[in-house]
Design a protein that fits this description.
Number of helices of chain A: 5
Strand order of the largest sheet of chain A: 1-2-3-4-5-6-9-10-11
Strand content of chain B: 35-45%
Structural class of chain B: mainly beta
Strand content of chain A: 25-35%
Distance between the termini of chain A: 69 Å
Shape of chain B: globular
Number of helices of chain B: 1
Oligomer: heterodimer
Chain lengths: ~290, ~130
């Protein structure tokens, strides 16, 4: 080992702890400047399903099932499920190009004419959710937020996590590949977190066969402006661009509120006690 | 009008229990496997409350025509039950309960729990 190397090593050993000590207060300062979003949050639409008003709303809707929009072949989903999915902002038809609008309508007609008997009931399920639908899951959008200077993390009850890195750009294109949640980076503009998401795996928002859902290309780009609108309310103003399939940017405003009635994030999963099995083409939960 | 049969005992349901009750919460398999247009009332003895994901299950022993049948009743996930006041030991083996269910379209003695009345006479919510 040369004298020069020894000197460099000594300098590193001597000064590294000092550098760490110097950076810690800076990180603490940056931490303290971040908004207090920590805690459990849930989508307003999903939370609303527990209200008496929603109970009345759904009973009225079920009294006239012909007015509930088509989401799946008749009989494949329970009417209440169809109603709840049809309320999701991200399950509406996007501002498609004429070509994709025609495809969307063709698919709608196809599922209207499809008999439930040809659909494998075992395939009609959702354990994980793709971005962006994970932010507007009509059944349960429940997540915990962790805000740090390096990233903001959204941890969902089913274990899925959105890592919103705020200390780095997107990786180089050759280091990226499509995934269910895409790749997200963020930057703070005051108390608003601006999130840029790319490389979402192309395809429908809800990857369930025979279910009508927006379908975007691998060129889709999502910009979110996440900000508080009150002490217990958060809003995600999302703009979706897809030069291949949309004629103009698609904007939605997703609202969240602090989750009530929970003292912790209680996990969900699909495998612990999966009693669902298809017998003679029909789903059963018989005791085993 | 909901169809119903009671294996034994008296009718104990209040009208509030005949409302929508359980909505799909944490999505897993579709609830289309249950007949939402029919409701059954069952009175029986708790064999087991399976406090599990993706769904909790109430295993209920129901005596009908002198024979004991075991019913499997799907409930919501622990997350949903917990926030509505349920706990893993809210029902214990041997408890006498009356429940309202949507019967399954296929398979024997199974359905979806809508609501009920516990051994203490208090309402059991859908969660």
């Amino acid at each position: 080992m040369s004298a020069k190397t020894l000197l460099a090593l000594a300098a590193l050993l001597c000064c590294a702890p000092l550098a760490a000590q110097q950076s810690a207060p800076d990180r603490v300062r940056r931490f303290a400047a971040l908004p207090a979003w920590s805690g459990l949050w849930e989508g307003e639409a999903a939370a609303d399903t527990r209200s008496d008003a929603f109970d009345r709303q759904i009973q009225q809707a079920l009294a006239h099932p012909e007015n509930i929009p088509t989401v799946a072949p008749p009989g494949v989903l329970a009417p209440a499920e169809t109603f709840m999915i049809s309320r999701s902002q991200l399950m509406q038809e996007p501002p498609y190009t004429p070509q994709w609008h025609r495809r969307y309508e063709e698919f709608r007609r196809k599922i209207q004419m499809t008999s439930a008997s040809v659909v494998n009931p075992g395939s009609i399920m959702a354990c994980t959710w793709d971005f962006p639908e994970i932010m507007d899951n009509p059944f349960d959008t429940l997540f915990q937020i962790f805000v740090t200077p390096e990233e903001t993390l959204l941890l969902f009850a089913n274990g899925q996590a959105r890592h919103l890195y705020t200390d780095r750009p997107h990786p180089k294109p050759e280091d990226l590949w499509p995934s269910d949640l895409g790749n997200s980076v963020g930057r703070w503009q005051g108390d608003t977190l601006i999130i840029d998401t790319i490389q979402r795996r192309p395809g429908p928002f809800l990857r369930v066969p025979f279910v009508l859902s927006p379908d975007l290309s691998d060129k889709a780009r999502f910009t979110e402006r996440l900000h508080m609108t009150g002490p217990d309310s958060l809003q995600d103003d999302m703009t979706i661009e897809d030069p291949e399939r949309l004629v103009h940017p698609w904007t939605v405003a997703l609202k969240f509120q602090r989750a009530k009635g929970l003292d912790r994030l209680i996990p969900t999963d699909c495998s612990e006690n999966n009693r669902f099995h298809v017998v003679n083409g029909q789903m059963t939960i018989e005791s085993h | 009008m909901a169809s119903k049969w009671i294996s034994s005992g008296r009718l104990v349901f209040a009208s509030a229990l005949l409302t929508m009750g359980a909505l799909p919460a944490v999505a897993h398999h579709t609830f289309a496997m249950f007949d939402g247009t029919r409701k059954l009332e069952l009175r029986g003895t708790v064999k087991e409350l399976q406090w599990t994901n993706p769904h909790c299950f109430l295993q209920l022993l129901v005596t009908r025509d002198g024979a004991v049948q075991e019913w499997s009743l799907q409930m919501n996930a622990p997350l949903d039950l917990y926030r509505n006041g349920w706990r893993p030991r809210s029902l214990k083996p041997g408890d006498q309960v009356t429940v309202l269910i949507n019967p399954a379209r296929a398979g024997r003695n199974s359905g979806r729990f809508i609501s009920g009345v516990g051994p203490d006479g208090k309402k059991l919510s859908s969660g």
